[in-house]
Amino acid sequence: MDEEEKNKLINMIENENENDFLDFKLELYNFKSADKKQDFLIDIMSLANSNYPGDRYIIIGARDLPKRIIKGIDEKEIKDSATYQQFINENIEPAINFEIINFQYNDKSFLIYKIKYSTLDKPYIIKKDYNNLVKGTCRIRKGSQNASITRYDLDLIYKSKNPIKESNIVIKCLEDGEIYEKLILQKFQYSLENNSEKEKIKEKIIEANKILIDHYEYNGLIKLPTLGSAIELEEEDIKIVNMFVEENSMKINKDFFDIGDVGYFSIILGQGNYTGTKKSIEKYEILSEIIDDVKEYYQVLEYKRNLNNLYFIELVVSNSGNSHDELVDVSIQLPKDKIVLNGQFPVPQYEFLEKFKGNIISTLYAIKESYNANKYNPNSIVNPQVHIPTPSIPTMIGNYRESYESLKEDYLNEIDDYFDYELIEKGDMVILKHSQKLIKAKENLLFPCKIFLKEPIEKIKYTISSKFNDKIIEREISIK
């Protein structure tokens, strides 16, 4: 016996009153008396026929009314369990699945008959004449009484044995892998700091700070001889690196941004080489990495801050019925001014998008499969073809904006594909629709993805239609 059942039995002895799954007896059944043995058969048969959806118990050694008495029994008077089992099997059909428990509580002994729940073999009846019971007698537990069975009782029994096959589809909510019947609004929480990236940038800055550029003197003047197009760092790039240096309490040389005579030489458009001294090229390359990394660092921070202003919900289509269903159409209704529509979602800037293309949307929008919910299976999914941007090199600055716009378009298209919803605007509301081809009995299916909101909501109204249900279900799921 596990701890849960032990606590259940103690609670019944201490607190419960007789009902349709529980009977109390102060004394053991006297098997020397035919009348008492007859009472035993009636009590067992009645509880076995009860409509209560769970195990049933006869507890011997206690009484509930008119005054609760908990006295226990003398263990020496308990017969071998096989004696009780044989007597029941000889007189009741079909066989009843039950066990006998010798239970100890507060230094007292109790004998408990546990009749295990089953709907398969009911009704249980007397199989032969015994004492005043005639063959075919059938009794049922109703409340605290044993009663003669009625036609209505038999209808309920046969209905439980042959339930109507039907689906029962509703929307539930998911949080940390657990499914709930109430709406759970989650605040998006993206860790702002990425200390590993920050440390990598700081290491590069320290490395660049050690590179000193050699200058050449011509006629007493400092001159940087350059082959090809001279390269200069953008003021905005210098400014953002200085901001990172200041925020992280770093110190750099006054000529930290000096890249000497580095240039870029090209004959064919899009193909060329850097020119200049070895140190100038080395300094420029590491500064370029620092600039890109710092930009990306701040872009990620900004993107995360924007996300952290949002809320989201993870929804599940749940079939608690005893039959599968097909062509399940789900529609949920949300306030237009609170839902984040596809085109309203924060868009990362270039460096962030270029580095993490193809990985952002799945990370943000996916609802993780849990042990009790299966992944959404779309009717069709478009695999976005991510544009590979042209390398941004000095002679091709004009392509920078073109590359970003291409990446941005891919990003927004991927959101569209990932959502897999049909959007319908209806006044000040937006309806999100999607379909499930098949949902099995007792199955939970995830929505296509998380749904993001600008502000909290109290409830969601929804409708569900399906192939084997001729009615459109109209319900709501709320926080309360």
Structure, described:
The chain is built from ten helices and 27 strands. By secondary structure, the protein is of the alpha+beta class. The chain folds into three domains: 3-161, Methyltransferase, Cobalt-precorrin-4 Transmethylase, Domain 2 (2-Layer Sandwich), CATH 3.30.950; 169-188 and 309-478, no CATH class; 195-300, no CATH class. The strands form nine sheets. The protein has a five-stranded antiparallel beta sheet with strand order 22-23-21-26-27, with no helix packed on it. It starts with a helix and ends with a strand. Mean pLDDT is 85; it is low at 380-398.
Which features characterize this protein?
four-stranded mixed β-sheet, alpha+beta
Quick rundown:
The chain is an alpha+beta fold and 480 residues long. It has helices at residues 3-14, 34-49, 81-91, 151-161, 195-209, 235-247, 278-307, 350-356, 360-365, 398-419, and strands at 22-25, 56-60, 62-63, 69-70, 92-93, 98-105, 108-115, 125-126, 139-142, 145-148, 169-175, 178-180, 186-187, 216-218, 221-223, 229-230, 263-268, 271-275, 311-313, 315-319, 325-335, 422-426, 429-439, 444-446, 451-453, 459-466, 469-478.
